[in-house]
Amino acid sequence: MRMIDLIHKKKHNQELSEAEIKFFVENYTSGNIPDYQVSAFAMAIYFQGMSDQETTTLTQSMVDSGDTIDLSDIEGIVVDKHSTGGVGDKVSLIITPLIASLGIPVAKMSGRGLGHTGGTIDKLEAIDGFKIELTREEFTNNANEYKVALAGQSGNLVPADKKLYALRDVTDTVDSLPLIASSIMSKKIASGSDAIVLDVKVGSGAFMKTVEEATALAEIMTSIGNNLGRKTVAVLTNMNQPLGREIGNANEVREAVEVLSGKGEQDITEVSMVIASHMAVLGGAYSNEEEARKALDAKIASGEALEKFKQFVEIQGGNFDSIYEKQASHVVEVKAKEDGALVSVDSEQIGLAAMKLGAGRSTKEDEIDYSVGISMHHKIGARVTKNDTLFTLYMNDSSLQADVEETLHNSYRISETYEGEYEYVYKIIK
Ligand code: URA
């Protein structure tokens, strides 16, 4: 078999066989196929797309390129959740203890943030002592005994994706739906859960800017998951403004605690509860989402969800109270320049502003400052008066103030009226 023949076939929109896709993944991972041929191949896929069968085979071959995690020694149906990345997205911090409080095991691998979106591991590391590296034994024991274990990605999971993603990044082929879908799903499948809920973000802070694009991606991902024996549901959620009020690491953990105490903002609460309801159904504990929702609401009202979060932090070595000690040295208010209704915000710009303050990384080597961040006081549709505080900045380097303030002022639009209706969840795809 020769790579040039595969490129030729894809260029002419012919379907690749299972053997051809496996040949490509195995030989690219082992270094037998050069980047220049794979660049051409990725571009051919970008223009011609892939069939359902091809995408599923590509995903399975990528899973087979490295280690896989065997969670079979965890009792019960293990349900995982993945977000395509958002701003202020602390849903994993909320649903992890929430699902565990129902007795459904959550054994989850999470990642770090890069660019304008945050990562669950960085947020948890805002808690002093929190250990994200667990031995295999600790991971299994915690999942069995406490129903909760969360660790950073370790081992050699999906090396084909690491190589291919880096190449896509420099050849402008990231935004190919079959390549995104197989990249995300291969990592989820290799992580070993039985069922997966995908939070596909849509809007100004997301990869997918429209519901149509997000629907197409969600359909491919759910199809891959279900074809490969993992029950998969996608929830399309609105990322046209940051989720909740807080952006930054320690302040997002504090906000997650508020949601688990029943005092969260409506948007982050609703999105978390919808995702958790689907996870609870996939976990086999409830026959429908309404029943699951009632049980989840009860866990919040009784305080058990919050207790589970505290237990989760403690068993992974963290000091819960330390999140209230992480405070930045400078607090600055950014005020509205005019009266009117807040009609739009650019989540990506707000995420970038938080990154500039040190809450995120622009390169993998950057160090995070856990205490910095942004609070957003008004959401789309709110009426504001000139000099109302729109944002509070928490910073440790006051020289950043002017630049960050300017970014934030450019991130929103105030107009006379707002007539839209801001939906939190657009649709569910199974
Ligand atoms: N996230 C991934 O993991 N892969 C992609 O291709 C895009 C987003």
Automatic annotation (TrEMBL):
Q: What cofactor is this protein dependent on?
A: K(+)
Report the enzyme's class at the first EC level. transferase
**Enzyme Commission code(s) on record:** 2.4.2.2
Q: What GO CC terms are in its UniProt record?
A: cytosol
Coiled-coil residue spans? none
Q: Could you tell me what reaction this enzyme catalyses?
A: uridine + phosphate = alpha-D-ribose 1-phosphate + uracil; thymidine + phosphate = 2-deoxy-alpha-D-ribose 1-phosphate + thymine; 2'-deoxyuridine + phosphate = 2-deoxy-alpha-D-ribose 1-phosphate + uracil
Which keywords does this Swiss-Prot/TrEMBL entry list?
Answer: Glycosyltransferase, Transferase
For this protein, the record's InterPro entries field holds:
Glycosyl_Trfase_fam3 (IPR000312), Glycosyl_Trfase_fam3_N_dom (IPR017459), Glycosyl_Trfase_fam3_N_dom_sf (IPR036320), Nuc_phospho_transferase (IPR035902), PYNP-like_C_sf (IPR036566), PYNP_C (IPR013102), Pyrmidine_PPas_bac/euk (IPR018090), Pyrmidine_PPase_CS (IPR017872)
Give the Pyrimidine nucleoside phosphorylase C-terminal domain ranges.
341-415
Source organism, top-level taxon: Bacteria
Biological process (GO), any one:
pyrimidine nucleobase metabolic process
SUPFAM superfamilies in alphabetical order: Nucleoside phosphorylase/phosphoribosyltransferase catalytic domain, Nucleoside phosphorylase/phosphoribosyltransferase N-terminal domain, Pyrimidine nucleoside phosphorylase C-terminal domain
Gene Ontology MF terms in the entry: 1,4-alpha-oligoglucan phosphorylase activity; deoxyuridine phosphorylase activity; thymidine phosphorylase activity; uridine phosphorylase activity
The similarity annotation says:
Belongs to the thymidine/pyrimidine-nucleoside phosphorylase family.
What this chain does, per the entry, is described as: Catalyzes phosphorolysis of the pyrimidine nucleosides uridine, thymidine and 2'-deoxyuridine with the formation of the corresponding pyrimidine base and ribose-1-phosphate.
Describe its partners and assembly state.
Homodimer.
From the Swiss-Prot or TrEMBL record, give the protein name.
Pyrimidine-nucleoside phosphorylase
Q: Which gene encodes it?
A: deoA
